[in-house]
Amino acid sequence: MKTLKLSRSKIMMFCFRVIAVGFVVLSGNAFAQRNLPLDAIPKPDPSEQIKTFVLDEGLEINLFASDPMIAKPIGMNWDEKGRLWVVSSRLYPHIKPGQRSDDKVVVLEDLNGDGVADKSTDFAKDLLIPTGIMPGDGGVYVANSTEILFLRDLDGDLKEDQRRVVLSGVGTEDTHHIIHAFRGGPEGMMYFNQSIYIHSHIETPHGVRRLMAGGIWHYRPETGELEVFSRGFVNSWGHIFDRYGQSFATDGAYGEGINYVFPGSVFVTAYNAKRIMRGLNPGQPKHCGLEIVNSSHFPDEWQGNLITNDFRGHRVNRFVMSESGSGYVSRQAPDLIRTTHKSFRPIDVKVGPDGALYIADWYNPIIQHGEVDFRDPRRDQVHGRIWRITYKGRKLSQKPKFEDQGIRAVVNQLKSPDSYTRHFAKRNLRLRKKSEVIRELKFLEGSEGITEEDRLEILWANQAVNELDESLLKKLLVSKDHRIRAAAVRVLYHWSDRLEDHMDFLGQAVIDDHPRVRLEAVSALRQVGTVQSFKAILKAFTKDIDANIDFALWLSAREMESIWLPALENGAISFGGNTSALEFILKAAEKPSALKLLSPSLTSLDISSAGFRELASLFADIGKTEDLDLLHSSAFYKERNKEDRDFVFKELIRANQQRQVRPSEMRIADLLKLLVSGNSGVAELCGSWKVFEARKEIIEWLKNDERVEVAASSLAIMADNESKQALLELAEDESRGILQRSAAVGALTRLDPVKTSELAAQVLVKAKTTQSAELIFEAYLTKEKSSEHLAAALSGKKMNAEVAAAGVRKSLSSGGDTSQLVEALSKSGSLQPIVNGLSDEEMKLLMSEVQSKGDAVRGENIYRKNQLLCQACHAIGGGGGLIGPDLVSIGSSAPVDYIIDSLLEPAKKIKEGYHTTVITTKGGDLIAGGLIREGDREIILRMADGSERKIAKVAIEKKEISPISLMPPGLTASLRKDEFIDLIRFLSSLGKEGKFKVPSGRYVKRWRVLPTNGKAGNLIRTKGIQYAMNGKNDLPWKAAYSKVNAELPIEEVGINNGFNNKLSAAKFEISVSVSGEIGLRIDDTKGLQIIVSGKMIEATKESIFNLEKGIHNIIFITDRAVRESNLKVQLFDVGGSPGRASLIGGP
Length: 1147
Prior knowledge:
The chain is an alpha+beta fold. It contains 36 helices and 45 strands. Among the domains are: 336 residues, Neuraminidase, CATH 2.120.10.30; 74 residues, no CATH class; 138 residues, Sandwich (Jelly Rolls).
């Protein structure tokens, strides 16, 4: 038998796949045609699959339906007869050339009530990847690629007889982002979602409605009214309403768990969004589908819980909701289902007519869309299941009857505790004679024993049949229950054109005692869109403003600017001395004409640092010369701290670079004083403004390793003969250090890459460390068409292999065509090129060794090595970088070969939402990063180091999407083969059941620690431990992240000499949304003290603090003489306290 050996050098060489003509990618067949062994895929036997399910206590599960009754269920919804309608697609993810579109709508029926489907009927065929379905209005609505169809059965045989296009013009750029998640609203409207890569232009009787990228629509079929309800999300496949009409959503491609959605809310990736809302569970896995438990079959403690699917991690999750201000807090409860079965892919969930939960199982070992080849033989095109979950020992909900029932009987069903029954009672009433429905609704309203919740259902039933019940509405607007009042306000908006006194009620609601009512009022008033409604909005500033209301007010100011700004200018609107409201509105509008009114705030010394910086950025973004005069002067107030002053300088530089706007008065004398004191921000500013009076001092800085980079850059921008000569002399001086020479060469390159290329090559040849060459590579890779000149200069020269490899990695992730430079660096560094990557046989062997030899525990330690940069770019469960995807469930969602591929060849399969955007400025600079958002005036990119960078659109020549990943190849080249195998084993274990499943509690994952010795030690030694007590910014805290099990290894918290070699310091941040007591649960308190708000206290197992709203640093001081255990901390809500807080994650 032949033994195949895969050496470390083979893996390493794969990362530098270069031949004479440049960079070579794998052949088009790649892994799809390798005929990889399929024996790892479980057998598609439901009886075997169900054995792997681990259920929460009290639950039981049975198979409701499986193939061949159904295949590949994408979405499902019940009808009023208790039949389950399912859209299924065997064509997904795409139709092949010449293939017939034959996807289906299937109807499943449980004829004997035993919880198992007895009959399956193909209601409709000839569909093309249908992704949404909702029975109602005498037929069924179906999402069919570019359109929404309404299908009807005219003769009762459960077969489609009539097909009508209801809406068309829906985008189809990406088949798993097309419209989906059909959901009936409590008021009779229809809601549906679309995702990030879809651009819809839908014609309606009321005009064309547009939605670019993701969002949620709402539609009233009888009037043809279609509007956008909310914008954003990457790929949201879940939307649900609670008992009081409040909306929640999940995202199948973004990890923030449950999202609270209100009218006009905007979330991540929304097109042209300046500001977004965040989810309630940062760091959660991605979720698909969403349902709320309003079912008498389940216990009381389950009522109002949200159920969703972690389809990557083979789990069905449960979240417990509680109110917090105008919004909610979401806490994860134990999973309903968890399993190791690789093909269990729950993607939809609905409560059935019997009160049980029904789970649509897509059943597929492959779930990636574009990341795994469309024709990968492991994709399952045949199977699918519907599972049914019940609660042991509890009576099922009574299945309602609507057919052949009188209107009064149907109306009485509105009192049911079951959401299924209430929902279909209202849907049924839409088909009945309106006058009789209204009469019976009035009768029920006047009956004894009617609750406020019943009256709300009656109100919604009136709305469903499009009938105004003014008396009932006004009663509920003053209900004692704030949840009822909030729901009534939303109904009031929809009926505002029929109520002459609607503004009286909205004006009262906007100052309601409860913040959720105020939130609904602000949203309603924004949509009313009049001067009068804006005046009413201003009343909200007299009450407490939480994050949701703040966003709603901000959105109102922006969307209503054409209404209020002229009214403000002509005196029709007065802020009545409320300067904070005026400042808020003017900042939100971002209009140059508003800056004059904001000037007093900018120059005020009472403004907070955060508020000052926000205003400084706004002045830099849109200010004219006279505005920048004021901004510049504000930096020199003696009371202004150094950090805020430096921030102003950076903003002034940005205004000059991107908009060519600067102050008329540069205050040179003041700048020179700061420059002499060593202020690097001033040096950069002097360069940007070409303050030649500063040149002499900046040239002196060239002698200082810590200042040489800033000095060289500033002199290059000045670009006069004396500055260029100083740079040239430094670059040519072989007696100077390589770092200093590299800084000078890099600066000269930006002036003339052609003339500098030979000098650059000479310096690179002498460079022995990657750090010393960094500035040269950066300069040539960020200037359009410059890298080829450096490539030519390197011809025939030899250089350090490590430096050359670093240059290759940087080149391959720069976003541009750097093939010539990659080739030249590979030759100069003697990096042995190979034409092909891993062969089929080599990949099979490597995958086998990962399984048989890989150690995930060792692999996690390798992952955490600083030199690999994994944590700098990726988070695991919310703690870590944002450049790449969160890896919380990568092991349960991605095949092992895909993970190997991603490490060895990052550009081959780039995850959706993480493509590289390359911007070429009008000055010829290249800027590559991940697109965060794009607005009317600017684009914001996330750079490779995790920072955000604004680029004004007026400075942009072109914007392109690069096929190159920001993750450079070769990061794993330093690993031994056994280390590489361990790393893959760790990544392939993430998200699976076991020790590498991220715990569900709110554990601290993002830390900051003080490094050993250096500046930290000096500062603490000279100023004492109290210097760390408020988390001072000038202490060199560095990023650290907990392991998957939520523990921060104690050895990663340096013992600082400043603490006499006994104490260590680590801190994290929490955001308090509602003031009150906040709790920390600490695994081991030995040798631990906690600093909160500048006070040191002894740690207890459950440490409780009373904290005000805002961001707080929590600092742990550890006595290392007595403590050896790791740090593990969990945030929890204190019983009886209104306090609510969340952990700050990310990089």
